[in-house]
Amino acid sequence: MKKSVIYTVAIILIGAGCLISFLFLTGEEHGEVKGVVADALSGDAVRQARIVVDGKSTIKFTSTSYSLTEIPPGSHTLKVTAPNYYDFTKPIQVKRGKNLVDIAMRGREIPDLQGIIIFTEPKERGIEIEIRFHDSKGEGIVDYPALPFTLEGALFVREGTEGDYEKGRKILEGPIELFWDSEEWLAKNKGIIPWDRIRIDAEKEKYGILQLVLHTPQGDFEDSSTDVKLFREVK
């Protein structure tokens, strides 16, 4: 009877020791904080985001996912910083094992924004407008957050020849729909003028002049295009 009790106690102690060793080896006595860090408006990855919990940090350049390990259970403050974004700070309660914390970063500004350049192209949906940003050196800006812009403009029929023309009748005026194109490099911000908003004489009115104003948190920026195709291209 005594031997049986001794054996049982020994087995329990060995089992407990194995469990403690397993937890130690797998790091389950600590917590892992993981999730995604993305632009709040576009959902794109936030480049050069630095995510910090009690001095432990990770830097991600292209991926939206992050992971911080060996975080002691308890109350902590998670802080995220990235160029051209507002800082993100959130109190978190970490438990043993995995802790999911998704982060939505809000854009602050486009760095050294001095102006815009627009390009137009007829697409199936309508006239697509590329909006490119340039800095004080005249160079294109490629790394920037999504911001709450609005776009408005006026579209005129272009009258005359290619080398000698003027604005004709106005065929559109007012707000223009904006959308974000994550696949683009220079022109992530785009506008679209649906074909059903344009009423033209398809035989005579082939080209237009477009004047745009982009309203941004950093001010209003204008540009125009004088060779807007008012027709779908046949491929």
A few lines on this structure:
Keywords: Carboxypeptidase, Hydrolase, Membrane, Protease, Transmembrane, Transmembrane helix. With 235 residues, the chain is mainly beta.
Describe the 3D structure:
The chain folds into 2 domains: 30-105, Carboxypeptidase-like, regulatory domain (Immunoglobulin-like), CATH 2.60.40; 115-229, Penicillin-binding protein Tp47, domain C (Immunoglobulin-like, Sandwich), CATH 2.60.40. The protein has one helix at 2-26, and strands at 31-39, 49-53, 56-60, 65-71, 74-81, 88-94, 97-100, 103-105, 115-122, 126-134, 150-160, 165-180, 189-194, 207-216, 219-229. The chain is elongated and about 75 Å long. The longest helix is centred in the N-terminal third of the chain and has 25 residues, at 2-26. It has 1 helix and 15 strands. The strands form 3 sheets. Strands 9-10-13-12-11-14-15 form a 7-stranded antiparallel β-sheet, with no helix packed on it. Strands 1, 4, 7 and 8 form a 4-stranded mixed β-sheet that branches. It has a 4-stranded antiparallel β-sheet with strand order 3-2-5-6, with no helix packed on it. The protein starts with a helix and ends in a 6-residue tail after the last strand. The chain is mostly beta strands.
